[in-house]
Amino acid sequence: MWRMKYYLSIMVMLIGVVAMVIGAVFIYQGYEKEGWMKEAMWEEQVTLGLTEEQIQRIKRLGVIPSMQPNFVGEWGWPGGMYDQRLGSERIKMNNPYRRLLDEGIRIAFGSDCGFCPPWPMNPIFGLWGAIRHPIKGSDITLEEAVRAYTLDAAYSSFEEGIKGSLEPGKLADIIVLSRDISAIDADEIKDVTVDLTMVGGKLEYRAPV
After folding, report:
1. What is the DSSP pairing of strand 6-11 with strand 194-199?
2. Are 97 and 142 in contact (CB under 8 A)?
3. Domains of the chain: which residue ranges?
4. What is the Cα 38 distance to its own chain's centre?
5. Among 36, 93, 111, 137, which residue's CB has the most CB atoms within a 10 Å radius?
6. Residues with Cβ within 8 Å of residue 53, at least 6 apart in sequence
7. Per CATH, is 6-166 categorized as 3.20.20.140?
8. How far apart are the two ends of the chain, measured CA to CA in Å?
9. Bridge partners, 7 (sequence order)
10. Predicted confidence (pLDDT) per residue in 17-69, tens digit
């Protein structure tokens, strides 16, 4: 029987499109049960608005929401673009990180389009956006945000065995920050910079002294 690991990543925005994608996942999982597809990973990119019903279906189907906290940090505040475009009710469903994690759903964080001004591509800005989420009850802890950017992001592409955490036998992809982000006020995190970067154990960047 044909068998392979693969993942399908679909970029969606807003509730109606999310519903269509979840429905498609449900249909294709029927083929998996019949042996047509095995070990599939389903990922939704940029999941902005989610209803409670959709969150429960995501949990049952094993879909991994791939989300970009940079957007929240730039557009999520009162009077921001989300507030203007979504309105007071729909904005409550916007990027519900806390709700997803409380349901045991893995989420993968990324930076999305760093070429789109004005928000920075820097994931440190995204960490700040996730832990300072302006929508009440959607913020998460620093540790949860770091895991979403690292280990759970690696899991979403079947790579958690080689990267995503610092362990013997894994790739030595390491950064050294200018400050200890676990020991400073959350509002200061967005201004932290990178002092050193290693990729595969090789020094690739060192900040000027």
Report:
1. unpaired
2. no
3. 6-166
4. 24
5. 93
6. none
7. yes
8. 58
9. 41
10. 565 666 555 545 554 444 433 344 555 555 567 888 888 888 887 888 888 89
